[in-house]
Amino acid sequence: MNDNKTNINYYPGHMAKTKRLIKENLNFIDVVYEVIDSRMPYSSKISDIDNIIKDKTKILVMTKYDLCDKVETDKWIKYYENQGYKVIKCNLLNDNIKSLINLTLNITDINEKRKLKGMKERKIRVLIIGIPNVGKSTLTNKLVSKKVAKVGNTPGVTKNLNWIRINNDIELLDTPGILWPKIEEEQVGLNLASLTAIKEEVLPLEDVINYIITTLYKYYPNILKERYGVDNIDDFIEVLDIIGKKRGCLQKGNIVDYDKVYSIILKDIKDGIIKNITFDRYDELKG
Ligand SMILES: Nc1nc2c(ncn2[C@@H]2O[C@H](COP(=O)(O)OP(=O)(O)OP(=O)(O)O)[C@@H](O)[C@H]2O)c(=O)[nH]1
Ligand SMILES: [Mg+2]
After folding, report:
1. Which of 1-15, 45-59, 235-249 bottoms out in mean pLDDT, i.e. has the lowest?
2. Would the CB of 273 count as within 6 Å of ligand 1?
3. Distance, CA 31 to ligand 1 centroid (Å)?
4. How far is the CA of 133 from the centre of ligand 2 (A)?
């Protein structure tokens, strides 16, 4: 029996529904934006994506590039490009997404084909998919101009699909597809919990925090030192005590409140205070 695994793969019904919806409406879609988190280019990627979207034209949108370790993440970008992916890296809070728009226009030959057949041109239809919290909604809002205009319904198999106008050439399916990665490796689950893609309760919080501290110590010891005053991790409890005292997580009698320490660490990651980190290590996974 493996309790962890069962716990991690929650929502199977919900995911099955998303998959079915995508499958049934794939004919109406020209381009898929697969959104992944630059801090975990492996763990946040949907492993069976090609089973779901077949040979649809896709663009890998790597969000939160501002939060990642660029040296490490760039290895993944190269890797995915070598696999034939078109990759756009971005900080959705800052960058404009012109390059994504331009790439979308460049790699889609739908209207050339239609012209040859004597058909009228139409807008390129885009679907955004990705696991939770990678930035799908932020990307949608960025793509959609202020006046959100529905450009009419295209009949889908099971329901009417709503398309949102992006510009004269592109429209976007109004709901992004939330999918779930297959978590077959423990480390993937830990990365997802550490970098806020799954609720931390899915895994024992203590394990997640231990993993964060161990990983930071291994690859980014300066962060531990500068942010928390920790320079060795020989004893986990001692590390928590140091962090707790430094950050004022004390209960009566000067006892460190560990739950508070856990929250602080997770919040620091969530708020991007701990940044320039990439937890998927290319050299270890693919090198
Ligand atoms: N620093 C930084 N934060 C980002 C970026 N993109 C998204 N975020 C933040 O990440 C969080 C999640 O973004 P959402 O757009 O809600 O993610 P989502 O994929 O729609 O999440 P679900 O709807 O839960 O599946 C938000 O707090 C965003 O502000 C980015 O490029 N850089
Ligand atoms: Mg969302």
Report:
1. 1-15
2. no
3. 21
4. 7
Calculate the average pLDDT of the chain.
88
Q: Is the CB of 132 under 6 A from ligand 1?
A: yes
pLDDT, tens digit (0-9, with 9 covering 90-100), for 227-246: 999 999 999 999 999 999 99
CA 204 to chain centre: 21
Mean pLDDT of 246-253: 93
pLDDT by residue (tens digit) across 151-188?
A: 444 444 445 678 889 999 999 988 778 887 777 889 99
* 275 CA: nearest ligand 1 atom: 1
Ligand 1 site, residue 38, Cβ cutoff 6 A: no
43 Cβ inside 6 Å of ligand 1 = no
Give the integer Cα–Cα distance in Å for 129 and 45: 10
Q: Is the pTM of this model over 0.85?
A: yes
Spell out the domains of the chain, with CATH numbers in brackets.
3-178 (3.40.50.300), 204-285 (1.10.1580.10)
Contact 176, 194 (CB under 8 A): no
265: left (phi over 0), alpha (psi -120 to 50) or beta: alpha
List Cα–Cα distances, 103 to 19, 35, 97, 186, in angstroms: 26, 15, 10, 35
Q: Which of 205, 203, 210 is nearest to 3 (CA)?
A: 203
Task: State if residue 135 touches ligand 1 by the CB under 6 angstroms criterion.
Answer: yes
Q: What's the rounded Cα separation, in Å, for the pair 7 and 201?
A: 10
